[in-house]
Specification:
There is one protein chain. By secondary structure, the chain is an alpha+beta fold. It has one domain: CheA-289, Domain 4 (OB fold (Dihydrolipoamide Acetyltransferase, E2P), Beta Barrel), CATH 2.40.50. 24% of the residues lie in helices and 37% in strands. A five-stranded mixed beta sheet has the order 3-6-7-5-4. The longest helix has 22 residues. It starts with a helix and ends with a helix.
Amino acid sequence: MANITTIDSRISAGMAALHAEKLDVVHCLFIPLKDELLLLPNSNVAEVVAYEEPTPFSDAPPWLLGRVSWRERLIPLISFGVISGKNKRSTVSKNSRIIVLNTLNGNSELPYVSIISQGIPHLESINEKNIKDVENQEIDERQSILRHVKVGEKEAMIPDIDDIEARLIRLHS
């Protein structure tokens, strides 16, 4: 009888550990840019859509490419390479996509922003064990980047969506 109890408690402990491990996994998207990757939690991405030419704003900074129509809304389209300070202008190719992102501050006037990707994002499950911070002076000096990380063999940047949202709001004030 003691053996059954021991086995039962091991199974319970194992199931609890497995359950806890599953809760620690975050489903993320690697978003390809020209020669870099962005990493975002899947819950931050509202949708990935085919590229369409944006309607430009007058007197907009080079990182704000214009606005695109999405689900009967006009949302700003941003070049992450330009807003972060890496590139002087945005690149569009036949593989380009628009990644619609949920903003994080509950601003009803700016619930979404979008960025250009240079391909189709791919999903990866990430936990604390397989993500590490990376020191990179060049990236650390750029704007709108929250963290630079390595997942397995892939290096990626986690964008600072709050900073991007604040920069857009400052433009309209």
